[in-house]
Specification:
Layout lengths: L11 E4 L3 H12 L5 E3 L11 E3 L6 E3 L5 E2 L3 H10 L5 E3 L4 E6 L3 E6 L7 H8 L6 H16 L2 H4 L4 H7 L4 H16 L8 H12 L8 E4 L3 H15 L3 E3 L4 E7 L2 E7 L2 E4 L3 E4 L3 H7 L1 H6 L7 E11 L9 E3 L7 E4 H4 L19 E8 L9 H15 L10 E12 L19 E3 L12 H22 L1
Parallel strand pairs: 1-2, 1-14, 2-10, 7-16, 14-20
Antiparallel strand pairs: 3-4, 5-9, 6-9, 7-8, 11-12, 12-13, 15-18, 15-19, 16-17, 17-18
């Protein structure tokens, strides 16, 4: 390891160029600082990045991401980057489902104030009986008065059962929503986190539950414009620069040693590293706050392309009970293709069928062979689009993220540290920190802002 500094002393450093790190760096840059972001990979974005498909003509996301109207910090970030126009927004919150018994269904919220828009949507949701719909009303007092900390030790299944939610309502709405937002099946998911999600989606305003789909690959939505904005503000991003050691003196972080040199006497540092990476760097601190007890949960994504035009009736379709929990029609949202160089706003013609499946909480599926994953997703697509039955995908890509998110099990919040650390000039960011949210883009963006604000408060006190 080089021991000579590679930059002037007094640098403001951000460790990691995922969404949390980029958000923190942008906030610091907007405050007049010149942050230096140190990233181990060749590109920015972390889990929210895309890469060219080596055998095709499109850029595939590391895993499909759905944004929601409740993602206030994420949407503010996109406004700052000028990329919010690259979201496909719908005026009325609606979700399309399919199952083998009821076929196609749609949960559509009318233009009513929250939470009445949800109750009206459930009242019109055909798969539910009148009794099923009435049980949803019982959950409103719980959302208003049950405190998240009181629910911390319960699973989502236990909490819903305590409030007598019907089996049909759970299977068709609450369980799929839990799996999608927490990346964990309801039987082992933290009820406190799920209650927070429901409050944000359905008890704030009508648009909070509106789905938003990126119409460009994720790197073009966040990472690329963020790195350009950081550089324009005088900051920098150093790629392939893996943090190897942190050294401290008393209550101060004294040096950051990386594979490309060492930064000595930094003015302030935000760590947006994954929790496991930080635990390896600071094993004693990690043991003291029980960070190593925070486990991880996997996500599997399967991308398929067919040689004929094919499309779903909605950009995203939920399949309760099927292997492909959610199917994304990439054609319906692909208004610009950076690889092909199409102009923004020009629709990509349906010359083929392009779909992606998201398998959250994929503890079993992440161990399946890629061929088996392709087979089961193909079968799910054939149930919706029988014309695909005799076809073989012309492109099939499987992405397995074994450690995609922290595992939001009951009691897991106690292992999520806050943004402050024992060292005055060292703060934490990341969707795994104590944001009060599950591991989402919103949690990452919120954590980056929180960490940057604490650094700015520290530097203001120094003046």
């Amino acid at each position: 390891m080089r021991t000579q500094p590679v930059d002037d002393t007094g640098a403001v450093l951000v460790l990691g160029a995922g969404v949390a790190g980029l958000t923190a760096a942008l906030r610091l840059a907007d405050a007049g600082l010149r942050p230096v972001v140190l990233e181990a990979a060749k590109t920015a974005g972390g889990r929210a990045r895309s890469h060219p498909d080596p055998g095709g003509h499109e850029e595939l996301d590391n895993g499909p991401h759905l944004l929601m109207g409740a993602y206030t910090h994420t949407l503010q970030l996109l406004d700052r980057l000028g990329s919010r126009s690259q979201l496909l927004e719908v005026e009325t919150p609606r979700f399309t489902f399919w199952d083998r018994v009821q076929g196609w269904q749609q949960l559509r919220c009318p233009d009513w104030p929250a939470p009445w828009h949800l109750l009206a949507a459930l009242a019109r949701f055909a798969p539910l009986t009148a009794g099923d719909k009435w049980t949803a009303v019982r959950l409103l007092p719980a959302l208003l008065f049950d405190h998240a900390t009181e629910l911390e030790q319960q699973s989502v299944t236990q909490w819903l059962a305590a409030h007598r939610q019907s089996a049909a309502l759970c299977q068709r709405l609450w369980y799929p929503l839990c799996l999608a937002t927490l990346n964990e099946p309801a039987g082992s998911a933290n009820a406190g986190l799920f209650a927070t999600v429901l409050r944000r989606l359905f008890l704030t305003d009508r648009q909070a539950a509106s789905p938003l789909w990126p119409v460009v690959p994720l790197s073009h939505l966040i990472a690329i414009p963020a790195q350009e904005a950081i550089r324009r503000a005088g900051g920098a991003i150093r790629y392939q620069c893996r943090v190897q050691q942190l050294t401290f003196a008393g209550q101060t972080l004294q040096a950051v040693h990386t594979s490309r040199g060492s930064w000595h006497a930094p003015r302030a540092v935000v760590s947006a590293l994954p929790g496991a990476a930080l635990a390896r760097l600071l094993p004693d601190w990690a043991a003291s706050c029980q960070l190593t007890a925070l486990q991880t949960a996997p996500i599997v994504s399967v991308h398929l392309t067919y040689p004929v035009p094919a499309t779903l009736p909605a950009p995203m379709v939920g399949l309760p009970g099927e292997s492909s929990q959610w199917l994304l029609d990439r054609n319906r949202i692909a208004y610009r293709d950076p690889v092909e160089g199409l102009e923004p706003g020009r629709a990509v013609p349906y010359v083929d069928g392009r779909f992606s499946a998201v398998l959250s909480g994929a503890y079993r599926e992440c161990h399946w062979p890629a061929a088996e994953l392709v087979r089961v997703v193909h079968q799910d697509l054939v149930r919706l689009l029988p014309s695909l039955a005799p076809l073989v995908p012309t492109m099939a890509r499987v992405s397995k993220m074994h450690h995609a998110t922290f595992a939001p099990w009951p009691g897991s919040s106690r292992y999520r540290p806050g943004s402050r650390t024992p060292w005055q000039n060292f703060c934490l960011a990341g969707d795994w920190t104590a944001t009060g949210l599950p591991a989402t883009l919103e949690g990452a963006a919120q954590s980056g802002i929180d960490a940057a604000e604490k650094i700015l408060d520290l530097l203001a006190c120094e003046r």
